[in-house]
Amino acid sequence: xxxxxxxxxxxxxxxxxxxxxxxxxxxxxxxxxxxxxxxxxxxxxxxxxxxxxxxxxxxxxxxxxxxxxxxxxxxxxxxxxxxxxxxxxxxxxxxxxxxxxxxxxxxxxxxxxxxxxxxxxxxxxxxxxxxxxxxxxxxxxxxxxxxxxxxxxxxxxxxxxxxxxxxxxxxxxxxxxxxxxxxxxxxxxxxxxxxxxxxxxxxxxxxxxxxxxxxxxxxxxxxxxxxxxxxxxxxxxxxxxxxxxxxxxxxxxxxxxxxxxxxxxxxxxxxxxxxxxxxxxxxxxxxxxxxxxxxxxxxxxxxxxxxxxxxxxxxxxxxxxxxxxxxxxxxxxxxxxxxxxxxxxxxxxxxxxxxxxxxxxxxxxxxxxxxxxxxxxxxxxxxxxxxxxxxxxxxxxxxxxxxxxxxxxxxxxxxxxxxxxxxxxxxxxxxxxxxxxxxxxxxxxxxxxxxxxxxxxxxxxxxxxxxxxxxxxxxxxxxxxxxxxxxxxxxxxxxxxxxxxxxxxxxxxxxxxxxxxxxxxxxxxxxxxxxxxxxxxxxxxxxxxxxxxxxxxxxxxxxxxxxxxxxxxxxxxxxxxxxxxxxxxxxxxxxxxxxxxxxxxxxxxxxxxxxxxxxxxxxxxxxxxxxxxxxxxxxxxxxxxxxxxxxxxxxxxxxxxxxxxxxxxxxxxxxxxxxxxxxxxxxxxxxxxxxxxxxxxxxxxxxxxxxxxxxxxxxxxxxxxxxxxxxxxxxxxxxxxxxxxxxxxxxxxxxxxxxxxxxxxxxxxxxxxxxxxxxxxxxxxxxxxxxxxxxxxxxxxxxxxxxxxxxxxxxxxxxxxxxxxxxxxxxxxxxxxxxxxxxxxxxxxxxxxxxxxxxxxxxxxxxxxxxxxxxxxxxxxxxxxxxxxxxxxxxxxxxxxxxxxxxxxxxxxxxxxxxxxxxxxxxxxxxxxxxxxxxxxxxxxxxxxxxxxxxxxxxxxxxxxxxxxxxxxxxxxxxxxxxxxxxxxxxxxxxxxxxxxxxxxxxxxxxxxxxxxxxxxxxxxxxxxxxxxxx
Length: 1031
Hints:
The protein is built from 37 helices and 26 strands. It is globular, with a radius of gyration of 35 Å. The protein starts with a helix and ends in an 11-residue tail after the last strand.
């Protein structure tokens, strides 16, 4: 009764005060009541599980709430921003093992293990170690491994947070590696279940069917045992568990600072080494491959590594990676990390501890817990953050040792250097200058690589793959830095406490008043406290924030905060105190209540999902408004061509100012690439046989074929560098090691080395009339003799007037379109021009990036290489029907090398032709081959498959189930054709339009199509106008 009486009195008293209060006071009371209620409600809600999830979401999007992206119209070929990965994620979602109806050991009866405790928000090297070892453990336990996206640590992400539309920051696993660990195939005779994505895990293993294993229940008994003991313990547990679905969860950070199955303490010691032999020989390791994206980035930039110095005095490999030393030079904030390693007496990391590796690191004596002697710290820095002199000595020593270790008769040569570095201060430029003085003529750094957004997103893996390919690699064996986001928050929190403590000491009697008078610092402290609260829900992802962790520095380390930053804070402090002191009591309360109200509104919108949803939508709309589809600039490639080593007047004969050159100004332009390629190769061969340097030219587009409108072109008519389309001697590449022939030069260098006053002009009309209709070998030898005998150093072959000769090339269309070209085949095929012809890095990159589209969709695959199971067919549509009718009316035949006798298909011109016109029957016959019907195409493809399989040698396993359609069709016709093919057993069908191409890939799209067709086991081409490239 006493409680009820008290409440009644309070109610009467409150009613009386309310009735006697002014209107303004009532509003203040209402506002305060609502604010207090919301604050208490939100505090209690934050303690619930659902509230924790919302707090985690707020932490993820909080940085983007403070600023909006500032997108501007593109001025270059691409707009830099994070890629969406839509196609790759869809491909992962459609993996063939994502099917509940598959038989055991996959499908709904399969056995799975999901390592939810797998480390995240760290460097890729740390995560990769665990991905591979967890995959190996799942394989040995006969369970399906569940792969996950790579989650970025915010500090490492290549783009600012203002450009991010999706949180958390993630990259698909298949963008970084390929192989069984990310859903790839095992060996053909291996029945192990294929890995599935974490998204499919939720489907095949709903929560009610999972057994949860917490690491706290397993790790304590084996935590400090050798790696093989730990591995075998977990393998036995997973094998013997009867449950179909097992999820391994992490213990609390207070219990285990590194709650992974294979934790940092294991990876950072020699206890990991007993696992090396079994892991190295396992299918997980053997079948691990470079991802198509990474492979594409490396291929695109390979031209940067082509040796640029003088020709070596000893035979040297043409492969630049065989002549490369790669060295990892980490800078930036790494000195603090190195000092941390020294103070905690760290050693080499993981497999860097293997005893057979040449370099060893023996921890010096004198270490005490958490600190080391100055001599030992210097010893650590020598390996972790070496001086320029130490780096130079180490590199030159490694080169000498590598060459000395060559076997008898083995020619070893190192003159290419790749520097993996994060330096942005210009320090590495001085280092490059020093290296060049010691004979390193080709030096490339990480920042020199040209990467599109997809490749930039996997830039760390690009660096790693280049280093993997190098003949020699000097790495930083110590572990990566663990300066995490939570640690930074902790430092800021303690920094605010230190400033408040300084105020407290300066005036103890007014300590709380002075703190209250400093709203900026107080709000800063509250913000950091809130950040720490928000971070608790993701603490299991962060190995750095541990009270007992050696990675958290003592308060004395705050001397690293710049003095300028402290002075700025003090100025803000004085200004805030002045404003606060000048305000009256009501104003101060209003300020406090306004701040709390804004915070409450922000939390409410966040919890209901409005802020993340609308913020993401705003950014998506901003991205949609940016036109990213622009032609590439090729600035880097044109600069590389300009700086080719043969572009040097001081080179000795047969190059330099005394060399002999020939420039085919008559070379055909503004036609299809197939037409121009034929002539480029034949002109190069003619120059080679004439002992002259060939002058290569850009590919000039016919405007109807250009992939962009004229309004977007950077120049008109559009040009594409020759080195974007092919590589080899025809475009400035080296000849064989023992071949003294002069290397090809660019048009711009021809103007330097052969000024117009020194050129002899030969008009095609002065040579062609007597030999116009002769066989190809006669034409070739006539021009060869002319160029050999000419005493002039520089010769320019110019075309005659179109009114005189409609095709004024040295090797004209009438020659290419008849069997008169065939006598040149054997000589050209065996020439170094043909033998050394290669795919350009840009095309190779585009093909590599899309290779995952051709991966087989059946199990088990007879062959792992998708191209060995591929049939490619060229189906030209659009305006090609008119072209076919024209070919029929002029009684044309197959084109160029398509006329070779050894090819299976022949085309015999039907009788009845008259000049410029053909019979209706003959026209129909032409269209059957040039513009075939659906029924003819399907019959032809299936027949070719049957013939290919039947022609297999004894014991050879042949099959075709991958179909690639090279087509320009935009009408939707090809979609219907694909459905017909699927009914005939073609499980994987890809068209030109399915390829994902960046601006450079789109610019050389015809070369991409041709290269995929070249790799295919069977190619059905359109012989009337399509040039075939043979393996």
